Amino acid sequence: xLYERQILGSLTNPELPKHVxxxxxxxxxxxxxxxxxxxxxxxTAGGRKIxxxxxxxxxxxxxxxxxxxxxxxxxxxxSDEELSDLLRIIGEVATDLANAKKWRVRLVGDRSALPENxxxxxxxxxxxxxxxxxxxxxxxxxYGGRNExxxxxxxxxxxxxxxxxxxxxxxxxxxxxLITEHLYTTGQPDPDLIxxxxxxxxxxxFLLWQSSNSELYFEEALWPDFRRVDFLRALRAFGxxxxxxxA
Length: 247
Known about the structure:
The chain has a single domain (2-6, 17-143, 191-239), classed as Undecaprenyl pyrophosphate synthetase, CATH 3.40.1180. The chain is 49% helix and 14% strand. The protein contains 10 helices and 6 strands; from the N terminus they run H-E-H-H-E-H-H-E-H-E-H-H-H-E-E-H. The chain has a 6-stranded parallel beta sheet, sandwiched between helices. Strand 3 (104-108), helix 6 (116-129) and strand 4 (136-143) form a beta-alpha-beta unit. Helix 2 packs across helix 3 (39-60). The longest helix has 22 residues, at 39-60. The protein starts with a helix and ends in a 7-residue tail after the last helix.
């Protein structure tokens, strides 16, 4: 459409984010609003939207995308029926991404908290796509920001213990950069832009460490209704912001 082309024409490569993180919010409300249906209808629609969204990112040359699909709290706070449906849909998404053979998949979350069958499916997608050159897709599943930081510190302590280093030695070496090396997203740039759909305006523990300098964009559309034009508007808003990086 003409409006989309106008927005696209206003975007320039240097203004585009290198890492976009998206909180895929509003699936349950979408199901209720459109059909009065069970949450699985919304989660299914949300899962289908992912492939389309990654295609938009691919077209624009955005190299890293993180998709917040399931929080660590969701594993205990959702009903058994909804959680079962959601885990199945996440597995289907991971398999579809692997079968597309276009994008590299990484699981970002607490692997030990996941049911073994889902962990196997996502890790298989990681193996099958690890040598691809395309867009890097992080699936944030069983993810919690505080949990990630705690796990990073544990891994750091364990590493230095295995090397025979003392606590005093670690204290001298400890820097934010050292902790960053042990996060789930190690080796990747921090997100430049975090988008949350559904109108909610909070991070809900998403990428707490990595989001210190991220630009936030809150979109009213529910995730299954999120359109390419909505994404382009978010990118346009990002390009117009003066990034201060904590200053």
